[in-house]
Amino acid sequence: MFKRARIAAKSAARRSTFARRVLAALLAASLLPAAASSVEARDPLLAYGARIVGDDARTRIVIDFDREPRFSVHYIANPERIVVDLPATAFGFPAKDLAARGLFKDIRYGKMDEESARIVLTTAGPVKLALAKVQADEAGNGHRLVLDAEMIDKKAFAELVKTQSWSDRTEAAKTTSAIPAPQKAAPGDFVIAVDAGHGGIDTGAIGVDTKTEEKQVTLAFAKALTDRLNKEPGIKAFLTREDDEFLSLSQRVLIARQNHAGLFISLHADTLKQKDIRGATVYTISDKASDKLAADLAERENLSDQIAGKETVAEPPEVADILLDLTRRETQAFSISLAESVLNSFKDQVGTINNPHRHAGFRVLQAPDVPSILLEIGFLSNAEDEKLLLDEAWRGKIAGLLTDAVKRYRAAVMANGG
């Protein structure tokens, strides 16, 4: 079974030069950081080749690197996943070379932050790595990471999860402690957290024509909106993420709260099965979805942590109910007011879907003390929407209309003693 992997390795080595050019182009396009605080971040590993072979009993993954990678492996349940953590890495091979097969039903890889990357292998059932090692390439072209996965029973997988020492429960505190407060914020300033949905290993939706990733679209819109808001006196906006890095849903909420945001605006550009649906939608939080479209979207967005290989730590039902009740009692009315202000700005200026204000249980909107909305700017599954989403002038128009909405919202809050 693995003979093909050895044969493919020879051709992968020949792709190394091309992949290095790809990396250079990515750096030039600012898709990868030009500078960082560590040597590894300034000079990331290059994964220039990959292949996967096997069946539903045993599957091998081989990834070629320009130099020896350090790595660690962990297991996560519900659903079963294998997480491979790496230093900063540029992935320069075609996605089809590592398409899921055999024991794996989904494979994701990408940047986590300036100094780390991750591969998340979602398995079709309980699986363990019988072999996980780095070995030098026979042709002297670097090193390769070899992962041999094999099927095990549920009890054995549960034991793997239980006995490992790794946990990322502290990552939220670690990450958000490095987030700077809004620049030059003064007492009395109205602070707004602008959240670019997805990022890093979580690419989000993919454009129907250009194959543009949602994480790029949302970051471009978030930067345009932040710049526009910061031109208004008394308003200070900041980004929850400033580049292509992954943030968990709880981290996004915590960043807004730590910086004493008075508003949280999360930007998205999803896809739908119905390609003809287009236009903007504004969502607020609710324990019951307004309709199936809102419920399905919330379910997909709430899977962001799972996609990135985050360990799911479920809150007890009574705690979740209390949090949602706090959100409803203290901020839901303000969130609805903001949503209505946004839709009033969009009227006759921006197309919206039918019933454009909808609600569902979005985890990213759960800050108990920060009015929050999730704005679907448009749908990457619709060709006409996709054209607009990639248009710089359109971004500027949306930023201006959203700024007008925020100003009206703020004026209303101030008038009522807020």
Summarize the structure.
By secondary structure, the protein is α/β, with parallel strands linked by helices. Helices cover 35% and strands 26% of the residues.
The tally of strands reads: 15
Helical proportion?
Answer: 25-40%
- The low-pLDDT segments are 1-41, 168-178
The whole-number mean of residue pLDDT values reads: 84
Task: Give the spatial strand order of the biggest sheet.
Answer: 11-10-12-15-13-14
- The coarse overall form would be elongated
Terminal Cα separation, in Å? 68 Å
The SS-based structural class is: alpha/beta
Q: Give the DSSP E fraction (strand runs of 2 or more residues).
A: 25-35%
Secondary-structure element sequence? HHHEEEEEEEEEHHEHEHEEHHHHEEHH
Tally of helical segments: 13
Radius of gyration: 22 Å
The main pleated sheet reads as: 6 strands, mixed
Provide structural commentary:
- 35% of the residues lie in helices and 26% in strands.
- By secondary structure, the chain is an alpha/beta fold.
- The strands form three sheets. It has a six-stranded mixed sheet with strand order 11-10-12-15-13-14, sandwiched between helices.
- Strand 10, helix 6 (214-229) and strand 11 form a beta-alpha-beta unit.
- Helix 6 crosses helix 13 and helix 11 crosses helix 13.
- The radius of gyration is 22 Å and the shape is elongated.
- The N and C termini lie far apart (68 Å).
